[in-house]
Amino acid sequence: MVALLRSFRAVARPALALPKVQVARAFSASALRSAGAGPPQLIGDGVKAGEVPTDRQQATGIERFELIGKAEGVDVFDMAPLPSDRIGTLQNPIEVLSFYPERHVGCTGSPADSHETVWLHVTKELKNHRCPECGSVYTLNFEPNADYESHHH
């Protein structure tokens, strides 16, 4: 048995010692990776040499998106609180707008701050979600984006 193992090791050593060949990725594979609709490019104009840039000139990405929204008077992240003047019922639940099929909602009761914040995971699969503390009912108003499928693989 020992002799058999020695013969296997002798055969395996040259195979392990062979140099590994690095294969360059084909140029055509790069195009497949970048296929489809991508997000809009949020890069500013920049600043001329010798000047100090403003926040709007220097910002990129999501920060620039937020600054442009504030300049146009739009709350791009929809940070307004949900209505807390009533308790949602099964017949009249509190609607939560979402562009994604799920959302986290913090319920503080009605009137606001009646109880500690209870976080609910509201999804489109279940029609109504009830707060275990106050009984308020929430439903997800899912409005899918046309580009939703191309951004989430």
UniProtKB/TrEMBL annotation:
The gene is COX4. The lineage of its organism: Eukaryota, Fungi, Dikarya, Basidiomycota, Agaricomycotina. GO terms for molecular function: metal ion binding. Pfam families: COX5B. It comes from Cutaneotrichosporon cavernicola. This is Cytochrome c oxidase subunit 4, mitochondrial. CDD domains: Cyt_c_Oxidase_Vb. One of its GO terms (biological process) is mitochondrial electron transport, cytochrome c to oxygen. Zn(2+) binds at C107, H115, C131, C134. Belongs to the cytochrome c oxidase subunit 5B family. Keywords: Membrane, Metal-binding, Mitochondrion, Mitochondrion inner membrane, Transit peptide, Zinc. One of its GO terms (cellular component) is respiratory chain complex IV. It is a peripheral membrane protein.
